[in-house]
Structures are given as structure tokens and as C-alpha cells.
Amino acid sequence: MKNKITTAILSLSSLLCSAQTDLSAEADSAEVVAIDTVRTNDRYTRIILYSNHTWEYWDLGRPQINEEDFKDHWSSDVTHAYNDVPLADLPDEIDLLLADSIHNYCAPITGIVRSRFAFRKKREHKGTDIPLTIGDPVKAAFDGKVRVVKSPKQSGGYGNLVVIRHSNGLETYYGHLQKHNVEVDDIVKAGDVIGYGGNTGRSTGPHLHFEVRYQSHPFDPERIINFETGELRDSIFILKKHYFNIYSHYGQTDEESIDASKRKIHTVRSGDTLGGIAAKYGTTVNNICKLNGITSKKTLRIGQRLIVR
């Protein structure tokens, strides 16, 4: 460890050790208190300086990370590393340990959710948006290892982006950051500040875009985190295959989620009418209107997506 301390720290520690031999008997009997801490090259080690000119290392608690958990599909260049793994190959249910006495958790940020995991306008919004003030610290949700750090030009809409992989196979995404505070391959602990809130990339205002993915397949982050309170909903999470659908979200029963994941979607084209769409999918205009919250007099727009059943 000592060989990682900077030359300045070594010089300081040598000076303190030399000064210690000159302490008077009165100083030796005085109460010894910590007066300062000094960073080292190790994120989880500090040096404590005491009032009697002595010092010692302070272990902040290194996350218990098994490097073997991070070799599969590890890439710092590809944002979604498991793009070659189809949803059909995933099991129907996956038991995930989120937190216990060894595995830590911290809310990345708390606040009212502004935009949820859902279909938004003409694109799928695959995460949760929480408003913030530019410069607010954004924290790692769980212990893990940084896989991706990308700039707005590299991230494809995420702005400044950090992706962290966790031992249970989950990855968390932190988008639209003003700047990042970590680098690729850094080991991080839940609660470490990994960046600062911003408004970069495809963003309509300062907020954190937070995603949770399993083998690159996203599901609703609100299934595991209550962002208003910052609390983890449970320490163990059963991830079900039907959760990986943009219409499946927290608050639904399993039956509702399964039905939502089986929805048929029609993208409106030139010349389409509600009657024609209903006939094509073997349903009724009334049913389409009910599913989409519209009336039969609604003017259809080219590119509009309609749930047909």
C-alpha cells in the first residue's frame, strides 16, 4: 500500500515521524485527537493525522467484488453489452439479491418522478427521470464496477453517461450528467458520487435519467426503488421475463403485466382509419378507443402508435 502513496505524502509522513521523537513529556500526556485526513491513490484508504504528530491508515471499507463476475460481455465501447442475447434466452424468473449486510444500497438521487418507464410520444422511454439541480451529486445505487463512461457525442442521447455493472448481473445507467466522477474499471461502493446532475444529451431540462437492465434488457426501475423516499422496495427481487416490456410497470399485478407484455401495437400509416385497423387485427373500434383513451372521432397521425389488443 505504501508504494502507492504520493511523494508528498511520504515526505509528510517522514517529517511527522521525525518530529515525534522531539515531543515533550507534556505533549505526550495531552489528549490525542485526529486533526486531518489525507487522500491516497486508493479510493478506499485515507491517512489520519493526529495532534501528537503521528499518523495511521484508515480503511473506508472496500466493496467485496469478485472480478470473475465482470468478465462476461465486458466492453467499455458498447453501451448495451448484451445486444446479442435475445429476450427468449432469458429464464422466466431470476432471483436477484439487491442488498444485505455485505451488498450495499444507496438511492442514486431522491425526488418526484417526472417521466416513467413507458412509451413516450414516438419512442420507448426505458428509464425513470428524476428532476434535479445542475451539479447535484449522483450516487452509485449498488456496489459494482464501472463499465462505461461516455460523452454526449458517444452516448447517442444519454448525454454524459456512466454505466455500472453489479455482481448480481444488473447494470445501472446514469444519464444526462453534467460531468462524471469515475473512470472505466473503477470499483465503486453504493453511495459513492459517480457524477453530477446535468442537462446533457437528448434532455428537456436538468434531470437524472436512470435505467436498470439485466443483460441489456431494461425494466421499470420503480420496481426496485421508491425514488420519492429513496428506499429499496425489497432486499431480494424476483425479476420476471414479462417485466421486460415497455408496457409492464410497477403497480401492475402479474396478470396485468403479462397482458401488457402481450399487447399488439399498430403504427399508423397514410390512409389508415380506426375501422380499417380494427378489421385488420380482428377487434373493434370501441376496443381500440378504450385501450388508447381516445374517441372514435380522434384524428389519427402518421407514425402514431395504437394498442390494438
Question: Count of helical segments?
Answer: 6
Please give the alpha-carbon distance between the first and last residues: 62 Å
Average residue pLDDT = 88
Query: What number of domains?
Result: 3
Order of helices and strands: HHEEEEEEEEEHEEEEEEEEEHEHHE
Please state roughly what percent of the residues sit in beta strands, choosing from under 5%, 5-15%, 15-25%, 25-35%, 35-45% or over 45%: 25-35%
Structure explained in plain terms:
By secondary structure, the chain is of the alpha+beta class. It folds into 3 domains: 58 residues, no CATH class; 194 residues, Glucose Permease (Domain IIA) (Distorted Sandwich), CATH 2.70.70; 43 residues, LysM domain (Membrane-bound Lytic Murein Transglycosylase D, Chain A), CATH 3.10.350. Strands 7, 8, 9, 10, 11, 12, 13, 14 and 15 form a 9-stranded antiparallel beta sheet that branches. Strands 1-2-3 form a 3-stranded antiparallel beta sheet, covered by helices on one side. The chain starts with 6 loop residues before the first helix and ends with a strand. The N terminus is likely disordered.
Could you give a short description of this structure?
The chain is built from six helices and 20 strands. It is of the alpha+beta class.
Write the layout of secondary structure elements.
Elements: H1 7-20, H2 25-29, E1 34-39, E2 45-50, E3 55-59, E4 93-97, E5 118-120, E6 123-125, E7 128-131, E8 137-139, E9 144-150, H3 152-155, E10 160-165, E11 170-180, E12 187-188, E13 193-197, E14 207-214, E15 217-219, E16 225-226, E17 231-232, E18 236-240, H4 254-261, E19 265-267, H5 274-280, H6 285-292, E20 305-307
Antiparallel strand pairs: 1-2, 2-3, 4-18, 5-6, 7-14, 8-13, 9-10, 9-12, 10-11, 11-13, 11-14, 14-15, 16-17, 19-20
